[in-house]
Amino acid sequence: MDAKPTIVWFRNDFRLEDNRALSQAVLRGAPVIPVYIYAPNEEGDWPLGAASRWWLHHSLAALDDDLRRRKSRLVIRRGPALEALRSLITETGAVAAFWNRRYEPAISIRDRRIQQGLESAGVLVQTFNSSLLFEPDELRTGRGSPFQVFTPFWKTCLSKPSTEPVVDAPRQFVSPLSWPASLPLDSLGLCSRIDWASGIRATWLPGEAGAAQALVSFCLNHLLSYEATRDKPASVGTSRLSPFLHFGEIGPRQVWQRVNAVRARTEDKSIWHSADAHLRQLGWREFAHHLLYHFPHTPLEPLRPRFKHFPWSSDAGALKAWQQGLTGYPIVDAGMRELWTTGWMHNRVRMIAASFLVKHLLIPWQEGARWFWDTLVDADLANNTLGWQWVAGCGADAAPYFRIFNPTLQSTRFDSEGKYIKRWVPELANLPSRWVHDPSGAPPLTLSAAGVKLGENYPAPIVAHSFARQRALAAYQIVRKEKEYRLAFAQSSLQIDS
DNA sequence: TTTTGAGTTGTTCGA
DNA sequence: GTCGAACAACTCAAA
Length: 498
Prior knowledge:
Number of domains: 3
Order of helices and strands: EHEHEHEHEHHHHHHHHHHHHHHHHHH
Number of helices: 22
C-alpha cells in the first residue's frame, strides 16, 4: 500500500457524499489531506461578493466539522493556489492531488496550468466531474456546435443514458502521521467585522447537513405541488437549493436521484409534471454552465453582439433606488429588500426586479449582475450571466425584446393577497390588498387610513409604467435595426470607395 | 445549402 | 374578470 498521502483540493464541492475526487482519493488507501485554498484574485473579474464570503466561511466551518467527525480535518491555506499546493506537497510528501473540475473560464485556465505544473513535478493529478450532470464538452448539436437554445439542449440531455449513481460519503479516512499547519478560518477575513448578516444567518444553514435537510424538506413538502406554487413568492414553493448547489454542499446527481425517486413512486400525473418541471430547472443550471464554458466572454458582454450598441442610460440615482428597494413598485422593492436581508430572492421576483432595472430604467444588465453578485448567497457566474442576459434579451434563448414585464400585473397575478409585499415592505402592511400592488393608484383616504404617505414614507413610482414601456420599445428598435444600419453603412462605404 | 419549425417564465387590446 | 388575437420577428437546430 502506498503510504504517501493524497491531497484532496476542495473548491465549491464542500461535501463528503457524491464527491468523486474525495471518494477516489480515499480508495487509494493512503492518507488523505483535505485542503481548501483561498485565492480570491484567481477568480478573474469575479472575486467573491460579500454574501458569498459569508456563506463560504460557514461552509468551510461545516466541512471541517464533518471531517473531524471522521477523524480528519480541513487544512486551510491562502493562494496563489499552485504555490500553496506545491508547499503542501513538500511538507507532507504527498504524491497525488485530486480535485473536482470547475468550469468558469478564469478558473479552468488556472486549473489546467496548475495541473501541468504539478504533473511536471511528478505529482499524480486526477480531476473529476462532481458538479454537473453533463460536462460542457459532452453535448453538441448535430453539427458539432454548442447549443444556444434550451429545449433541444435539454432533450439531448434527457436522451443520454441515465446519470451516474450517487457515491456514498467515505466511512473512514486514513490520516497522515502529522497534519500540516492550517490557517485559522477567521484569518481569511470572510466575515466582515460589522455584523450585517443577521437576516442571512436567520434564513440559512450552510453546509452539507443543511443541504440534505433542504432537499428532504422540499421533496416531502413542496415538490408535489411545485408546478402550482413555484411562482408564488409568498409561499415556500421552490427548493431553495441554489446556494447549496453553488457551493457544492449538494450535487445535481443527488437532487436528480431524489426527485426521480419521488416521481417513480407515483402514478399521479400532476406530480410527474412537478418533478419534470423541477428537473428542468436543474437543466437550466446545466445549460448556464454549458453557455459560460463555450462563450466565456458573456459575463461582461452580450452574447448577441448587436446589443453592444443598445442605448443604455447611466442613472446613478435610479440604480441606487433599485438597490435599496425604493422604486415605488412594491413587488420590485419587496424583492430587492428580501435580497438585501436574506441573500436570496424568489425566482419569479428576480425576473420582475431584473426586468425593471433593464427595461424600465434602461440601466445596463451588467450593473444588475454586479449587484446580484455581491448580495446573493447563491451568486454563480454561469447562472447569474444567463439570467441577466435572458432578461435583457441579449442572451441565449432570451425573452423577445417586446416582452416587458408589467410589475403591477405580475404582482397581482403571483402575490394576489400582497402577503409577500407586506412582509418585505412593511410601510404598506395596512393597505388593503387591492391597492398594495400599486399604492400610487389608491384613493387618498385609503392611503392616509393605512398610514401611507407617498413620497414621504414610501416613494411614488420613480418612472411611470406606460412611459417606461414605450421608451424601452423605442430603445430596442435601435438595436433591432442595427442589421439594417450595418448594411446601409457597408453600402455607403462602398460608394465612398468607388 | 436551403428550408422549415419552433422557442421558460408576457402584455395589451377589444369583445 | 376572462378570453383570444396581435404584437413583430430573430435565430437556432434539424431535416
